[in-house]
Amino acid sequence: MNIKILTPEYVVFEGEVDSVLLPGKNGEFHIMQNHAGIVSSLVGGKVNLYAKSIDEAYAKYFTKENEKDSVFSYPIKSGVVEFNHNKGIILCE
Length: 93
Fold this sequence. Notes:
Distance between the termini: 23 Å
Oligomer: single chain
Strand content: over 45%
Number of helices: 1
Number of strands: 10
């Protein structure tokens, strides 16, 4: 599935991932392949991308959480996510 993470200043990430874990108002939620369409607000926390690797151009923004599982995290203060038809956009600060 394709995920794009944007801030007002720059593109944090754009590419294919296996899944993404997001910090929602009522707790974390995981979006996986073929997930139902969703629009949700996000709170402060980490956006975790589950992917085999991420492009070098975006790697500087991420911390690798786990060597074994290839989890890459990006801290956010707040934001919104829209996901539909295996494409997601995360707008955050």
